[in-house]
Amino acid sequence: MKKKVHKECMSALTPVRDTLDVISGKWKILILISIWEGNSRFREIERSIPKLTSKVLAKELKDMEEHQLIKRTVYDDYPVRIEYTATTYSRSLEKVIKELHDWGVNHRKVIFR
Amino acid sequence: MKKKVHKECMSALTPVRDTLDVISGKWKILILISIWEGNSRFREIERSIPKLTSKVLAKELKDMEEHQLIKRTVYDDYPVRIEYTATTYSRSLEKVIKELHDWGVNHRKVIFR
DNA sequence: AATATTGGTTACCAAAAGGTAACTGCTATA
DNA sequence: TATAGCAGTTACCTTTTGGTAACCAATATT
C-alpha cells in the first residue's frame, strides 16, 4: 500500500506557502521593520537599510501594498510628497516573526552545541 | 536626524533569517511532513510528493540532516536499506508552521474580501 | 534473460531573485 | 547656473533555485 501526502496536508500547506511568500526574501521583513520604526519616505527607507537599492525597494513596496501591509499615500504638496505607512493589519505579523525569531535563536544553540 | 534600522533590530533578524533558511523553499516543509507521516525510504518519500525529483530530494535531505531535522540510518541488510526518520527536535517546527498556517488562512480572508 | 527497484549522482537548462548603474522629470538649494 | 534631492524606472547582468533526463552498481522480480 503506497503512502501519499494526504490531500488534507496539501491543502493545509497552501496558507503556509502564502505566508512564506509574503515574508520570505532578502528584504521584506527588513523593510517592514524600517517602516514600523517610523521611516516613511522612499529615500528614507532606502537609506535606513544598507545595500538595499531603489529597484528592489520599489518592487517590494508594491508587493507589500498589495498584501495590505503598508499604505502608500500621495500628498499633493509642492513638490508631491509620498509616504509609506504600516497598516494595523501588518502588526499581525509580529507574532509570526516572533515565532520565527524564537525558533531561530534556539536553533543556533542546537546546531552549535 | 537620520533614522536607521537599529543594530538591535538587525541582530534580532539573524535568527529570523536562519529559520526562514531552514523552512522556506518549495519542498522542505512538504518533505518534512512526508517523513512525519511515516515515509522513510528515499523512493517512498519521492513518490509521496508529486513532481519532486531525486536530485532535489537528495539535496533537501542533506540540508535537513545538517539541521538535525531528520536522521539518515543505514541498515546493513542485503541489500543495504536506508531510512530517513524525523527527529524529536523536528517537532519543534510544528508550532512555527502552525503560526505560518494560521496567518496564511486569515490572510486569504483579508485579501479576498 | 530481461526488466524493475534501490539510493542516489551528473551534466545541462530554465526561471526567479537580486544586483549595478544610468537615467527620468520635477523641485530646491547653493 | 550647477548641483542635489525626490520617487522611482530601465536595461543588462549574476546568482540562486529548481527542473530534465540520463546514468550508476547493486539486488529483486517476472
Automatic annotation (TrEMBL), chains A, B:
> What InterPro entries does the annotation carry?
HTH_HxlR, WH-like_DNA-bd_sf, WH_DNA-bd_sf
- Please state every residue range assigned to the domain named HTH hxlR-type: 14-112
Q: Which Pfam families does the annotation name?
A: HxlR (PF01638)
Q: Which UniProt keywords apply?
A: DNA-binding, Transcription, Transcription regulation
Descriptive protein name: Helix-turn-helix domain-containing protein
Domain of life per record: Bacteria
Quick check: keyword Transcription in the entry?
A: yes
Q: Does the keyword Nucleotide-binding apply?
A: no
